[in-house]
Automatic annotation (TrEMBL):
<keyword id="KW-0479">Metal-binding</keyword>
<feature type="binding site">
    <location>
        <position position="124"/>
    </location>
    <ligand>
        <name>Zn(2+)</name>
    </ligand>
</feature>
<keyword id="KW-0520">NAD</keyword>
<dbReference type="InterPro" id="IPR026590">
    <property type="entry name" value="Ssirtuin_cat_dom"/>
</dbReference>
<dbReference type="InterPro" id="IPR050134">
    <property type="entry name" value="NAD-dep_sirtuin_deacylases"/>
</dbReference>
<feature type="active site" description="Proton acceptor">
    <location>
        <position position="113"/>
    </location>
</feature>
<keyword id="KW-0862">Zinc</keyword>
<dbReference type="Pfam" id="PF02146">
    <property type="entry name" value="SIR2"/>
</dbReference>
<dbReference type="InterPro" id="IPR003000">
    <property type="entry name" value="Sirtuin"/>
</dbReference>
<feature type="binding site">
    <location>
        <position position="149"/>
    </location>
    <ligand>
        <name>Zn(2+)</name>
    </ligand>
</feature>
<dbReference type="InterPro" id="IPR026591">
    <property type="entry name" value="Sirtuin_cat_small_dom_sf"/>
</dbReference>
<feature type="domain" description="Deacetylase sirtuin-type">
    <location>
        <begin position="1"/>
        <end position="244"/>
    </location>
</feature>
<feature type="binding site">
    <location>
        <position position="121"/>
    </location>
    <ligand>
        <name>Zn(2+)</name>
    </ligand>
</feature>
<dbReference type="InterPro" id="IPR029035">
    <property type="entry name" value="DHS-like_NAD/FAD-binding_dom"/>
</dbReference>
<feature type="binding site">
    <location>
        <position position="146"/>
    </location>
    <ligand>
        <name>Zn(2+)</name>
    </ligand>
</feature>
<keyword id="KW-0808">Transferase</keyword>
<protein>
    <recommendedName>
        <fullName>protein acetyllysine N-acetyltransferase</fullName>
        <ecNumber>2.3.1.286</ecNumber>
    </recommendedName>
</protein>
Amino acid sequence: MGAKRPLIAVLTGAGISTDSGIPDYRGPKGLWQRDPKAQELVTIGPYLADPEVRRRSWLMRRDVGALGAEPNAGHLALVALERSGLPVRVLTQNVDGLHQRSGLPERKVLELHGTAQRVQCVRCRVRGPMARALERVAAGEPDPVCEECGGVLKPCTVMFGEALDPVVLDQAEAIAKACDLFVAVGTLLQVHPVAALPQLALEAGARLVIVNGEPTPYDPVAHEVIREPISLALPALVRRIIAGEFAGDSGEG
């Protein structure tokens, strides 16, 4: 593990939020399985080109109810890990903001795919709260436009067909290379470039633990694979980490 101060990196995907009532995309009961056409609702090309896709997309955001979701035991376990004094960084593919709502400091959460808590105009780039846009949908605007310039509104998320913010990706890669323990939770590790982060950690000498209900490409090289439900498995894993089973001596976060 080396003499450097141990660092724990936790990559979270949709699976950590399903117990909060937010459906995942690719799992056996995920959104894509129930409605294969739903992927176009979060794909930038169709979204910009077709008003009907945008109308369906706004209804999906309304029905998913992510703004009203509450953190679950998995999120709270990571708060306990951070408050133990161990240095922790959470890299999340989720856009629901539940890590911050659960009590993790903003500076320790890196949102790889942006946030669904806010919207942005694709023309003038002005931003505003998602709650305000959904209020307009509820009031009868099926495809609310920018109140400043009339442009198309989209969530401040990275849609399919869009590139990740290079600054955010660079930060995530630096954390993966510097960590001693890399924990992947609730993600199938199939979407690049984020799916490359565990490999960077392994190449730098970190241990890899995977907590996921379905197999991932990294299972054969992981030091441990945990198949139990995340809300049960993650609190137990955190207790082991705090006890020193993986990360060794603690340092300041």
